[in-house]
Backbone:
């Protein structure tokens, strides 16, 4: 049994939104969608670091069972800003090294928030010569959108709350949580206090 019941919650966790079992079930469904939609031949999966690392690892292992064997690469994109708010500027900290010319790229990110990061990444893949660019995000916060983008594959839609776990962080903490939870900033020592 995988679930939040068996583990201690770090003390800023307000409530669990998706358990490890919820996530595993949704990832399986997404893998099926990607398997049905994407051609096996020239697929490149690009993970946007750092938040996507756990989601990405589960996705690619699922794709194996759907007989999809994509090439895999990562890009580290930083949307500068402090605390919980991204800024308007996206910078490439680490670029991909796979040649994506003529390929079908699927970008993988943890969460689609303002959309600036993913919008930037899509444009970047087209600029590098990708034939098609799709995107897969675990979480979508449509109410926060600024950039003109929606994802092709979405795990869960969430309200405008700050979430952590399963790769998502606050100040580089909480990424290891096997579940996704809402973070509270009311606790002493939370936002502004560290
Ligand atoms: P966007 O460019 O505003 O769409 O933001 C994308 C990035 O902001 C994501 O890849 C996350 O790293 C981060 N982010 C946005 N919302 C959250 C959240 O609720 N929790 C943790 N990180 C978030
Ligand atoms: Mg982040």
Residues:
């Amino acid at each position: 049994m995988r679930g939040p019941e068996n583990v201690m919650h770090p003390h800023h966790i307000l409530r669990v939104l998706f358990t490890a079992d919820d996530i595993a079930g949704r990832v399986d469904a997404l893998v099926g969608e990607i398997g049905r939609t994407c051609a096996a031949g020239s697929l490149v999966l690009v993970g946007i670091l750092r938040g996507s690392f756990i989601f990405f690892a589960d996705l690619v292992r699922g794709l194996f069972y759907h007989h999809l064997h994509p090439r895999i690469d990562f890009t580290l994109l930083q949307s500068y800003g402090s605390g919980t708010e991204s800024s308007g500027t996206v910078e490439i900290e680490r670029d991909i090294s796979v040649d994506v010319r003529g390929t079908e790229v699927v970008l993988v990110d943890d969460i689609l928030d303002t959309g600036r990061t993913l919008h930037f990444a899509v444009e970047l893949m087209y600029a590098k010569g990708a034939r098609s660019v799709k995107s897969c995000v675990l979480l979508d916060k449509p109410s926060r959108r600024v950039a003109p983008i929606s994802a092709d594959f979405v795990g869960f839609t969430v309200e405008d709350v700050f979430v952590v776990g399963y790769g998502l962080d606050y100040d580089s903490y909480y990424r290891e949580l096997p579940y996704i939870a809402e973070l509270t900033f009311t606790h002493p020592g939370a936002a502004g206090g560290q």
Summary: Residues 187-194 have pLDDT under 50 and may be disordered. The first strand starts at residue 13 and ends at 18. DSSP finds three helices and nine strands in the chain.
